Structure formats: C-alpha cells, structure tokens
Amino acid sequence: MNGRFIQRDRNWHPPAYTPQYKTSVLRSPRNALLSLGPTISEMTGPVFGHDILGELDNDLIRNYAKTGSPIGQRIVVYGRVLDENGNGVPGTLLEFWQANAGGRYRHKKETYLAEIDPNFGGCGRTITDENGFYMFRTIKPGAYPWPNGVNDWRPAHIHFSLFGHAFAQRLITQMYFEGDPMIWQCPIVKTIPDPEAIGRLIAKLDRNATIPMDALAYKFDIVLRGRRSTMFENRMEGN
Ligand SMILES: [Fe+2]
Fold it and tell me: Gene3D superfamilies this protein is in (predicted)?
C-alpha cells in the first residue's frame, strides 16, 4: 500500500447521541465541538516507560491466581496494531479489562449475581513489539445483563485501551468474539451504523494459533485510522 492520505470517514463511527444506548444521552455534547490543538505538555509530558511491565501482566490466567487457575475457557488473544497503511505500530501500550467466565466484573459497584472468581482479576497489559504484534492469555468472558433497557445483555467482550507516544493519545474500544449471536442484539453495538465497522470489532477464531490441549486463539487486529480503522468509542463521529 502507498502512503497517501486517506480522508476520515465520519460515518464509520456512531453518532455521539444514541438514545437506545441510554448513557449516551447525558454523555453526548450539546454544543458544537471545538478543535483544540495539542499542548506542549501533552506532547512532551510523562509517558509510560518500557521497563515497567511485570512478567505476568499479559497473562490473566496467572496474574491474579491465588489458589489455582480461574474457571472458564482458556484463550489466547493476539494481533497487531496497524496504521492506515497496514504497517505495524511498535511500542503501543495496550491495556485490557473484562468480566470473568460468568460475566462478573471484579468491581465494588458491580452487582450482577454471577460469582466473583477468586483466581481471576480481569485486567492486564502489554506493549506491541517492533512489528506491532501483541498477545495475551486469558479466560473467555461471559455475557452479562446491564441496566439499559428492560432486558439488555452485553455480548462477551474485552475492553481495550491503547496509548501512543504521548499521554493524550489514548484510544478505547471493545473486542467481540466470532460467532456470538449476542453481538447483533447489543444496544451499544447497534449504535455503529456500518456492519463492516462492527465486523472489525469481532475477533476471528484462529485454529492455527490454538495451543493444543490448552487454549483456543482469537485474532484481533486494531487499525488506528484510515479506511480500515477500528471503531474507537472515545472518538465518536471520527473526531
Ligand atoms: Fe464491559
């Protein structure tokens, strides 16, 4: 691919105001947006280092285990962080958080009746290598109900945060699992107008990367911008 500029497609991201996703009513802007250039402190301020990651940070099966392995299906999630021309982006800090196999988050405000797993914390992090590659090991999360409509459920998903080279360069998205019928019933997913944009949030089952007798593998590439961009929920309307 060449390096030509690709115009941002503002229909790729959902509108900020989507009443069927109730929280968006209060969170969406009421006034026209202002464009603010980056400040010097944003561009030069403190960023994460490359030597602060612990050995188990990308292993959610072991990073919180107290008495044994967490309950649930063991999986590997891997892929690349790519720019608009398909080149890998090295040095990107990825953080991820998720519910346990029963759909329960380890959070004091979480009230879903599914049990907490004493051996599962549900968060981790890693940094992309020189080719933009990342991987982590975890338990496949369960679906969970949430107070939006009368009976709304989130499909199984993993939240992702990506940090670039400056602290202000943060992007947030969610990854879903291929073949899950709950994806297409989710009020948050339904705010995304283009089915192809939804498709880019769905990790593909990759039998070639499966670890025999151990873990299934899901492949999830994240594209920062351009025609194949991932939908980022903190960049609504492509802003
Ligand atoms: Fe969630």
Answer: Aromatic compound dioxygenase
d(CA 31, CA 70): 46
pLDDT, position 64: 96
What is the distance in A from the centroid of ligand 1 to the CA of 3?
35
Q: Which residue has the tokens 């990759």?
A: 206
Fold of domain 48-238: Protocatechuate 3,4-Dioxygenase, subunit A (2.60.130)
- Write out pLDDT tens, residues 31-50: 998 888 878 877 777 666 66
Residue 183, both tokens: 């994806």
DSSP string, 24-93: HHHHS-SS-----PPPHHHHHS----SS---TTTTBTTTSS-SSSPPSS-EEEEEEEEE-TTS-B-TT-E
Close Cβ partners of 190 (under 8 Å, ≥ 6 residues apart)? 20, 21, 184
**Centre of ligand 1 from the C-alpha of residue 35, in Å:** 30
- Spacing, Cα 175 to ligand 1 middle (Å): 10
Task: Encode pLDDT of 85-99 as tens digits.
Answer: 899 999 999 999 999
Residues assigned a catalytic role: 105, 144, 154, 157, 159
Q: How far is the CA of 158 from the centre of ligand 1 (A)?
A: 7
pTM here is: 0.90
Burial of 6 (0-12, 13-18, 19+ CB in 10 A): middle
